[in-house]
What does this fold into?
Amino acid sequence: MGKRVGLEVSFAASEAVKLANVDLIAAYPITPQTHIVERLSEFVNNGELDAEFVPVESEHSAMSVCTGAAAVGARTFTCTSSQGLILMSEIVFCAAAMRLPVFMVLANRSLSNPISIWNDHTDVMSIRDCGWIQYFAENGQDVFDHVLISYRVGEDRGVMLPVIVNMDGFSLSHVIEPVEVEDQETVDRFLPPYKPEVVLDPAHPVTMGAIVLPSCYTETKKAQDEAVKASMPTILKVWQEWGDLTGRYYHPIEEYRTEGAEVLLVTMGGIGETAMWAVDQMREKGRPVGLLKIRLWRPFPFEEFRKAVSKAKILVVVDRAVSYGGPGGPVASELRSALYNEPERPRVVNYIAGLASRDVAPFDFIAMVDKAEETATKGMGPEYEIYGVRE
Amino acid sequence: MKREQDYKWRDFERGYVIMEPGTSREYHTGDWRSLRPIFDKERCIKCGVCWVFCPDCAIRFDAEGYAEADLDYCKGCGICARECLPGAITMVDEEG
It folds into this structure.
C-alpha cells in the first residue's frame, strides 16, 4: 500500500523517478522544472539513488545524453520547460524515430517572446508531431503515477517509444498536494528492469541513426506511425494493471458528469479540475453540462473521443496554445478534424485561455459555456476566440 | 542483396537499426561525380597530401606507392588537385 503524504508535485515526480531506479539523469536547469532535478541530484548525492547525474551544458546535450544512454540500455530521465524543450527538440525527434524509450517530464511553460516563465501549452504543441507518447497530467497523483506508467509502457518490447508526461508549470509543479507514494516493492512488481533487445555494443556492432535514401524513407515513417498507433492497447493494459495494483484507474478521455450532457467542456491538463467545479455549479442549476478531460494526446484516442461526444450538441474546447493565423487552438482543430467525417457531430466552439498562467476560474468556464451556446444557436461563429483578451 | 525498392515497411529493424556493420560501403557515392581526377605518375612524389585532404577517404595508393582515386567514392570535388604540391592531379570532365 502507498503512503499518503503532502508533497510538492515536483518532488512527487522526483520520488517516482527514484522508485523507477533510473540509471541516468541528464538535465539543464530551467524554470519551472528546476525542483524535480534538484531533488534528484540530492538523491544521487546522498546515495539514495544509484544513478549517473550528468550536469550538461544545454538541453540539446541533455536529450543527446539520454538518447545515447538509452541506446546502450540505460533507463534515463530528463526534464525541461519552454525554451529548453525548443533547444532539445532536434534530438527529441531522433529519440522517437530511433525507437529509444527515453522519458521526460515537461513542466509546461509559455514560449518566448515576450519572455514568460508562466504556464500554458505552447511549448509542447511546438513538438506535437515528435512521435512520442504524450500524456497530460491533472494533479500531483497523476504525475507520480504516470512517471512509473510511462517507463512501463515506453520500455514494453511491443512499444519501445519515448514518453512525455506534461504537467502544468507552477499550478502543478509548485503546489503541495496529497500524493499516495507507492513503496519500492509495489513499484518493482509493476516495473521490470529495462532490457532492450538491441543495444550499442562494440562486441556486436550495429548502426543506429543511419541515413536512409528517398527509396525507403517513406517506409520508415510508415513503420513509425504504425508503432505509435500500436502502443494504444499496451497503454490501456498498463493503466488497467496499475489500477488493479493501486486502485487508481486512468482512461484516455476522462468523463465527468457527462450523463445527459448537451454541452461538453473539453480540457487538457490541470485546468480540468477547475472545470469540474464549474460543471458542478452549472449542474446545480439544472444545466446539462459535462466535462471531458483529454489525458492521452498521442496516440490520440479517436474511438474513445468519438464515443464520448456522440450525444453532445456543443463542445466547448479550451485550448492553451495559439496557432497563429491558423484554424484555432491545436486541440480544437484536431477534435474538429476527428469529427468531420461523422454523420452526426457536435458544434465545436474554441476558446484559447489561460496563456502564461492567466487564471481560468470556474466563472470563466461558465461564461465560455454561455457564450458558446449563443454562438452555436447563431450558426457559424468564428473559428476560435482568445478568451478574456482586453479589447 | 535485396534492392532498396523491394523493402516494405515491415521489413526494417525497429527504429531503422542497421544490424550489419559497414553497409555504407555499398552506397557508391562516386555516382554523383561530374569531374574526375587524373594522376600523373611522372609528377607524383608520393607525399600523400591528397590522401590527407580528401574529405571522402577516396585516395588510395597503388603497389608502387603512387596515389590514385577510388572512383567508387570519389565525388570529384577537386580538393586533391588544388592541394597537390607538384601539380600531378588534373580534373577532367566526366562526360568528356
